[in-house]
Amino acid sequence: MSEPSIMFFEVNERQGVFHRRAFLMGGLAGGGLMALGGRLAQLQLVEAQRYQKLSAGNQFNYRLTPPPRGLILDRNGVALASNRPNFRLMVSKDSKDFDVETALDDLALLVPIDAARRARLVKDIARAPKKAPVAVMEDMTWEEFSRVNIRAPELPGVTADMGEVRVYPFGGAFAHVIGYVAKVSDRDLEKAKDDPTQDQDLLHHPGFRIGKAGIEKSLDRDLRGRPGATKAEVDAQGRVVRLDPEGDIPATPGKEVRLTLDADIQNRALEVMGDESGAIVVMDIRNGDLLAMVSAPSFDANRFVKGLSGPEYKALAEYERKPLLDKVLNGTFPPGSTFKPTVGLAALTAGIDPEVRVSCGGSWYYGGRTWRCWQKGGHGSQNLHEAIKNSCDIYFYQTSLKIGPDAIASAARAMGFGSTFDIGIPGQKKGLVPDREWKKRAFKKNPANQIWFPGETPSYGIGQGALSVNALQLAVMTSRLANGKKALNPRLIKSVGGVEQPSGAAVPDLPFSMEHLAYVRGGMAAVANDVRGTAYRQSQLGLGDVQMAGKTGTAQVRSYDKVKSRNSASVQWKLKDHNLFVAFAPYDDPRYAVAVIVEHGGLGGATAGAPRAREVMRVALLKDPEIRARIERPMPLPAEPVEAAPDGSVEGAAPDDPTVGTAPTTSAPIVPASPAPGVPR
């Protein structure tokens, strides 16, 4: 039997094991305590402000507020676009259990909601993100606003507050220039989706409006400003308990935009247009400032802010006089005889002697056709001065053949035709200034028509044919001619946020001699002040010795071949000739230029265009302190009266279309003027 063995551990060894375990456990506990203490220190000291904000965020909520849109003023500080208070009603889905139909049923007891609006609201609320408000009603009355606010605790997801809405005090007078604002569309959101400079929250706000046309669109970023926020205490469901105005973040208003327009001149221009369709532009000859840009008929921009109904927009879009079209910048017309001063400059530049006379017998046979003058009996012997005064077509037929189309086109471009101008509004139409190179480009698929035929030049010489211009270009041409030196550019935006924009006079000189410009201006002075001029009766300002110089024009829109009478009294509106007039005043010290286009206004540039130009010019002159002081001086005794042009004549009317036929038999046959070298006969 073996002896049992008894094992004894060394006391010191057992104590060593115990000490190692104690140190390990103590170290772990100490590390844990240190980590916990460090985390507590981080939370309470380092990140205390952050968590304080998060805590406050659970109690308080910031609601985005759109900034007040910048004001648009005229040159004298008159508000053309401003803001006014707007009581609005909004609905948002504040929970998953939100019932749109029930909410709208409750609201229908407090404010009027028709079936069409209700159906649209159901769709809009369904598409809107959670808690994103949808505008139910704008411009609520105080009674409606009060009824909703009193019952607000009983209406989950419904809020009624006060915002701002854009307002245009002059209605349609500035509609095409200033444009309008409207709700942000799905197309706008799609365009801005990948643009980091766009505030997406602001774009989705129901009270925010974006520029859709004119200055409102082109300067939209400057006019927007920066949004702010209102601080409100909310409950666990995110519903507002009370407002905390002290915590509000103020919005930064948009920049103030000041235009060169004058509200008085602009309103008068729209007034004199009446029911007619067309455009009026007034320009300061000294610096290029645009004082009026009227397109008629116009529309009330305030209606677009609220949102037009389908039938309302359709009525505007389908009206034959096109109120939505900006005829100043986007309406192009043949200039008719208002183009003759430019042809006169081209002739003088090409070396034509202005005193060489052309015989006008009322018709001229050339190229197998009879080309007619607007004056049935003719004007007799005419030099350039008399041809401008009398608007003699025969003179300009023959003179245009002498110099050719390229010389005319070069002068036209130097006077501003065929150009667009940086006035802050994009989308201008250039019109067309034809020449031989244009003919080659336009008919590159038809080589037979790439040649400029001599028979195209006479029509070009009287502002017809392929030539087309807009009202702004006519005003620029008149201003450059009247300035006599500078190739003025128009300026519409005077300042943005107090920063002055460049003057339209900071430009090179015109490529014409001052003598030639003065000669043409003299012909235009005779148009308005010689008793035989084509617009004498309609151009008398009645402002002392202040006189206006001008040029009439009629542009036909249909052929008059085999038509017995040019009288358009009983003719359909769209078949009547366009009526044009350009002028500047005072003649001896030019200050202001005006261009008038009356679309389908009928025969004679003096019958519709000149009287309107005269009335608008009177306002511009009377507002000028220096001109007013001149007018108030005593006048000298009147000179001996001279017999005026006979009544009943159609002054400045476009000529009849050329008719194909045999040459007239006369004792002294009419010989066409020799064209310039290189011009095919």
TrEMBL record:
Its main location: membrane. Residues 635-681 are annotated as: Disordered. It is found in: Cell membrane; Membrane. Gene3D superfamilies: DD-peptidase/beta-lactamase superfamily, Penicillin-binding protein 2a (Domain 2). Residues 278-617 form the Penicillin-binding protein transpeptidase domain. Residues 65-242 form the Penicillin-binding protein dimerisation domain. Keywords: Carboxypeptidase, Cell inner membrane, Cell membrane, Cell shape, Cell wall biogenesis/degradation, Hydrolase, Membrane, Peptidoglycan synthesis, Protease, Transmembrane, Transmembrane helix. Pfam families: PBP_dimer, Transpeptidase. Residues 672-681 have a biased composition (Pro residues). It is a single-pass membrane protein. The keyword Transmembrane applies. The keyword Hydrolase applies. This is Penicillin-binding protein 2. The lineage of its organism: Bacteria, Pseudomonadati, Pseudomonadota, Alphaproteobacteria, Caulobacterales.
